[in-house]
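Chain A, query sequence.
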Amino acid sequence: MPNFKQKILSHYQLLLQDKIDIYQDLIHSLTEDAQNDAKSSAGDKHETTLSKLHIEQEKIANKLKEALEQQFILSKLDITQVSNNVVLGSLVKTNHLTVFVCTALPKITVDNQPVFAISPQSPLGVQLMHKKVQAEFLVNQVNYKILEIL
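Chain A, predicted structure.
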């Protein structure tokens, strides 16, 4: 049976893969729409439609790029690494929440526990990095204490 940290990583990997698949399908669909529109239209309306499709395609391509970058970050994590300090890939339990230090991703629930994936560059991530258990710090007027580093 996978441990808690592995379950979290697997959940996020699946979430990102689903996102990537959706973005790729949307881009494919928009490409087909543009090709079909090119065959059936002419004039200003056609140019406007193509322009809108292209803008939408660029937006989705940027989201796809971001999801692929996040997937790459997750693929490089060594979650078996044991450290006394918070490092990239650490699962940190604080007095307020449980955070997975990797990249900014949506909150998930694993084994009935909410988990927040944060970037080490986020305000909370910056405060957590390289700290030890029992360290205390303030972020947005909230006092955090590290209870456990997994």
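The mean pLDDT is 92. The first strand starts at residue 91 and ends at 94.
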